[in-house]
Amino acid sequence: MIIALELVALAINLFYAPINVAAGGATGIAILLSAAFGINRSLTVLGVNLLMIGLSMLFLNRQMVQKIIVGSFLLPFLMYITPSYQVVDDAVLAVIIGGTVFATGVAILYRLEASAGGTTVPPMILKKYFGINSALSLLLIDMIITAFNLLVSGTNAFFLAAFSLVITSIVMRYIETGFDLKRQVQIMSNDALDEIQAMLAKEKLSWTTYEARGGYTNEGREMVMVMLDRSDYAHLLRQVHDIDPDAFIITTNVTEVHGGRLGY
């Protein structure tokens, strides 16, 4: 959790704050106030987080408050002790790197079911009492904060902040779902299923065989399911088509696989 929060602090202090780009969140508010009035960023984040802790105590359960409270104090502390200076001169490059680092830290926090507090609290409250999707309400809050770049730092900062939101969402999606994506392949053959299974055994691939029933004919037929890495998919497809060019194949992307061997 400390590593994740430090990544967020590094993204703010080394990439966003030096170019005065506020891409949402309590840290975005801190950057705006620092650029406009010279207020210390870590103090602003602490103040916003204290307010959010108070709201969470009023409207959320104790378990949620416990998840929020640790990160709410750790993040401003890490921002305070982390050096702040401009690492790269190019603003677009700063936003790309900063967005990637920031998203990595936030994604790790989500994996740990932890939180840095801040503007993540109002969406939790809105979801609990009004059923409003928390992702949409958080995006709206971030967009409002991002819009204030127009008043504080100008048009360039606004578009850079908007671009940063896109970068952050893309990186978070990939980190949350995992980089080690798998392919689930389902194979059905009229006459060559035994040969396909023999090929799978030769290739040392695990598979599961189960019965499928046609909706029109109501005939039962066996189908093979294989879970494999993306790099092995093209090879498997070629091997199946060499055995049966008319084999019926369904392929699905799978973000995560847990446990032992699927085939038995």
TrEMBL record:
<feature type="transmembrane region" description="Helical">
    <location>
        <begin position="130"/>
        <end position="151"/>
    </location>
</feature>
<dbReference type="InterPro" id="IPR051461">
    <property type="entry name" value="UPF0750_membrane"/>
</dbReference>
<dbReference type="InterPro" id="IPR015867">
    <property type="entry name" value="N-reg_PII/ATP_PRibTrfase_C"/>
</dbReference>
<feature type="domain" description="DUF2179">
    <location>
        <begin position="208"/>
        <end position="259"/>
    </location>
</feature>
<feature type="transmembrane region" description="Helical">
    <location>
        <begin position="7"/>
        <end position="37"/>
    </location>
</feature>
<feature type="transmembrane region" description="Helical">
    <location>
        <begin position="157"/>
        <end position="175"/>
    </location>
</feature>
<feature type="transmembrane region" description="Helical">
    <location>
        <begin position="91"/>
        <end position="110"/>
    </location>
</feature>
<keyword id="KW-1133">Transmembrane helix</keyword>
<feature type="transmembrane region" description="Helical">
    <location>
        <begin position="68"/>
        <end position="85"/>
    </location>
</feature>
<dbReference type="InterPro" id="IPR003740">
    <property type="entry name" value="YitT"/>
</dbReference>
<keyword id="KW-0472">Membrane</keyword>
<feature type="transmembrane region" description="Helical">
    <location>
        <begin position="43"/>
        <end position="61"/>
    </location>
</feature>
<dbReference type="InterPro" id="IPR019264">
    <property type="entry name" value="DUF2179"/>
</dbReference>
<protein>
    <recommendedName>
        <fullName>DUF2179 domain-containing protein</fullName>
    </recommendedName>
</protein>
<dbReference type="Pfam" id="PF02588">
    <property type="entry name" value="YitT_membrane"/>
</dbReference>
<keyword id="KW-1003">Cell membrane</keyword>
<dbReference type="Pfam" id="PF10035">
    <property type="entry name" value="DUF2179"/>
</dbReference>
<keyword id="KW-0812">Transmembrane</keyword>
<dbReference type="GO" id="GO:0005886">
    <property type="term" value="C:plasma membrane"/>
</dbReference>
